[in-house]
Design brief:
This protein is mainly beta. The protein has one domain: monomeric porin ompg (Porin), CATH 2.40.160. A 12-stranded antiparallel beta barrel has the order 2-3-4-5-6-7-8-9-10-12-13-14. A hairpin with an 8-residue loop joins β11 and β12. The protein is globular and about 60 Å long. The protein starts with 9 loop residues before the first strand and ends with a strand. About 20% of the residues are buried.
Length: about 300
């Protein structure tokens, strides 16, 4: 992964997003591979929920940590079809909105496109599969400096081990270009996820993700953060004195959740996630550089 590291921290720079043409290129590629009469039916999904996060500022010190509750809404329309036996190509368009109840600048809306191709490696319900995909989202924030675009490419391998449980592994790269370079995020990631069906079709799931790349921490001016940062800019979302610091580090994330079907087309999902981030040792100048945050999310999902 290549990142821009100036010789000394600089003031946050405003710039236009460099990924705007991506949806056009994606549409051209899809138009060239989609059959004129695909065998498929549209899939429509909707989601509404709420999430609590205990450290939205991604701060190290207790004095700088800020918590928030957000109201979430999302919708998508997907078009899957089967170009060959055992394969599925899916194009999806959708949006996701998060309304912060504490920090108006964090309220955001993200329309986007995604495409994925899945190939089963055998016959039957328990055959393993591989999948490759990509997504592109515009990210429209109330805080102008955070506005930008997000792109991700990933690959997966998965298998149903039995009727009750299965697993999948993933690896990929992501890039976020914002109007201010201090909010740029370039990273690589890998993870493993498993799910098991319990009594009454209730599903329990858990996962681990490793992420290596950029993180942005917002805090009152700090000499340690200044020395470790690649970019620095004011972050008035959290107060007039607060600065945003672009850092490079490694994150370890654990997630557990449960999905409870309430009808043939609807379910309630609850998940808890805990993430610890350590600053790149080459740029770390103190002994305990961990940034911890956790998130609790509850939502209602409906498929039409």
């Amino acid at each position: 992964m290549t990142t821009r590291i100036p010789t000394a921290p600089t003031a946050g720079t405003r710039k236009g997003s460099g990924m705007q043409p991506a949806p056009v290129l994606l549409a051209i590629v899809l138009a060239s591979v989609l059959p004129s009469e695909p065998r498929a039916e549209w899939i429509f999904d909707a989601e509404a929920g709420s999430g609590y996060e205990d450290n939205v500022s991604r701060a190290d010190l207790s004095r700088d940590k800020e918590s928030d509750i957000a109201i979430l809404a999302a919708g998508s329309a997907g078009w899957p079809f089967h170009p060959t036996e055992g394969s599925t190509l899916t194009l999806t368009g959708g949006f996701r909105s998060a309304f912060s109840t504490t920090f108006s600048g964090l309220t955001n809306h993200a329309p986007g496109l995604s495409v994925s191709f899945r190939q089963k490696l055998g016959l039957g319900a328990f055959a393993p599969f591989i999948q490759a995909g990509g997504r592109y989202d515009l990210q429209i924030y109330e805080d102008d400096l955070r506005e930008g675009a997000y792109a991700e490419i990933d690959a997966l391998f998965g298998k149903r081990v039995s009727e009750r449980w299965g697993f999948k592994t993933e690896a990929g790269v992501s890039r976020r270009d914002a109007d201010s370079e201090v909010f740029d995020q370039h990273a690589v990631f890998a993870g493993i996820h498993a799910d098991i069906a319990l009594i009454g079709e209730i599903e329990l799931y858990a996962g681990y993700r490793l992420r290596i790349g950029d993180v942005t921490s917002s805090a009152i001016p700090d000499s340690y953060l200044a020395k470790a940062s690649k970019e620095i800019a004011p972050d008035e979302v959290f107060g007039d004195r607060v600065r945003a610091y672009l850092l490079e580090g490694t994150s370890h994330g654990l997630q557990v959740g449960v999905s409870w079907p309430v009808s043939d087309r609807a379910s309630i999902d609850a998940a808890y996630e805990y993430v610890v981030t350590s600053i790149d040792p080459e740029r770390d100048v103190k002994d305990e550089p961990d940034y911890q945050h956790s998130r609790l999310h509850v939502s209602y999902l409906h498929r039409f």
